[in-house]
């Protein structure tokens, strides 16, 4: 069975340094798609790069960091500083039913329309910054917005055997496992709205310094083999997997990123490390030896 691997560069548009790294990775054949943030210092430059290259354009829907795109007076979606509430705080307020769904709907629509305005076309796919698109209070609004705009592809960030990945920082694991559990529940909503995903997914366990050729090869093979077992009777003759990555160069602490600048991961050398691993001869040989073809999200349009 043919194996198609989509390699996505997340956080495109975060800063000019991030954009430079994403485009370097793409030009080296190390990634195939990129997900654009719309409320960052490098957003407009990233949008222009989509228009001047063959990089597959995706939207990195963001409800957790920086300022909203929608020109509305939000009362629940933002803090008193008029910025999104953050990765964990937003989820807490959503769980408590304290976020007005009308505000979420308006921001979803605003971000899709802003992407079309900047790039000149709709995104081929939309995924969620920090996977917020699959929260139980967001996913149906998200799926409906995609369907309304004739977008049919998103991310299903379920990496198998996560708990067994002993190299992952134990501080991250509770969030990953909780998010995966919510993603499984959200899948039915995506299916009901006709939103497609890849057959498998990897990348949670290999962000930054946690990425090595050996680990990437292990998790990619696991993902494809698992998908092939589940889909052995599928008449397509191929399976798909998405690898989530974060290539880039260190962003200036103050001058790039969201309204307050960049975080530690954005300022670190870890994203250069990802470029080097993804473009290494070891990975290119691995793809050839294991019948893996690198493709973009456009493969899911057929």
Question: What key phrases describe this protein's structure?
Answer:
globular, single chain, 7 strands, alpha/beta, 302 residues, 7-stranded parallel beta sheet
Walk me through this protein's architecture.
One of its GO terms (biological process) is carbohydrate metabolic process. The protein is built from ten helices and seven strands. By secondary structure, it is of the alpha/beta class. Strands 1, 2, 3, 4, 5, 6 and 7 form a seven-stranded parallel β-sheet that branches. α2 (43-51) links the parallel β2 and β3 (56-61). The chain is globular.
**Gyration radius, rounded:** 18 Å
**Straight-line N-to-C gap:** 17 Å
Mean pLDDT, to the nearest integer, reads 96
Query: How many helices in DSSP terms?
Result: 10
Topology pattern, helix = H, strand = E: EHEHEHHEHHEHEHHHE
pLDDT < 50 stretches: none
Helix content: 25-40%
Overall spatial form: globular
